[in-house]
Write a structure and sequence with these properties.
The protein is mostly helical and about 220 residues long. It contains ten helices and no strands.
Length: about 220
């Protein structure tokens, strides 16, 4: 049974494919399936860099496109991460955490040379808040409330006295730190001190009157 398309027709079709024509257009024009066209491309491929090099098949093109896409993604990660391979681990982990929503975990970890297990250990086993941090979250609104009730006229020591009366144990240094973190600055009510003290002493008359050149000693 004679073939519907000769070898020259198939070779010409493969050449048209490599010149940039779409697979769907060629299949519609020749009334063939995509699998048939890909078989022709694999069988009659004439595109090669050298005579002794393997032919560039459709799968080779697909793998090359996939590789290019991967390299472009890695380049974009390098642009956004803001660190290098020599950066500390905590900087790399922070950069990966920012890139994960867009690039996933695998690509940023591969680019920055961080094991995925290290990243998961960092994200899933973070230390909980310390006791001091938990207490600070309780003290901040209390200090804020007392500061607003007194219209910002008292400082850390008086705020501590009020809190101690309410049953809280806290140091004035800690209150000062929390006020600084919250941005609370008290109004200074301290008046300036004036000294009315007149020093007692013997008044010496100005006998020289800036004339330091005398004719002989002990004249004055």
């Amino acid at each position: 049974m004679p073939l519907k398309y000769s070898i020259s027709d198939r070779t010409l079709t493969v050449t048209r494919y490599h010149s940039g024509e779409k697979v769907t257009d060629l299949c519609a024009e020749l009334n063939i399936s995509k699998s048939t066209l890909y078989n022709w491309i694999k069988q009659y491929n004439i595109t090669s860099v050298k005579t002794n090099s393997p032919p560039i098949t459709a799968r080779t093109v697909y793998l090359l496109e996939k590789r290019i896409k991967k390299l472009e993604s890695e380049l974009e990660i390098w642009k956004r991460c803001g660190c290098t391979l020599d950066s500390p681990l905590h900087e790399k982990l922070a950069a990966i955490e920012k890139l994960v929503p867009e690039f996933g975990v695998h690509a940023p970890c591969r680019v920055l040379g961080v094991l995925r297990s290290t990243y998961y250990h960092h994200t899933l086993r973070r230390p909980e808040q310390t006791v001091i941090e938990k207490e600070d979250e309780v003290f901040r609104p209390i200090i804020q409330r007392i500061f607003e009730e007194t219209q910002g006229r008292i400082g850390a020591k008086k705020i501590r006295a009020i809190m101690m009366a309410q049953g809280y144990t806290i140091s004035p240094e800690r209150i000062s730190r929390l006020m600084k973190e919250t941005g609370l600055v008290c109004i200074s009510t301290m008046k300036g001190t004036h000294c009315n003290f007149t020093p007692k002493g013997i008044y010496r008359h100005n006998r020289l009157k800036q004339d330091f050149h005398q004719e002989h000693p002990n004249k004055v």
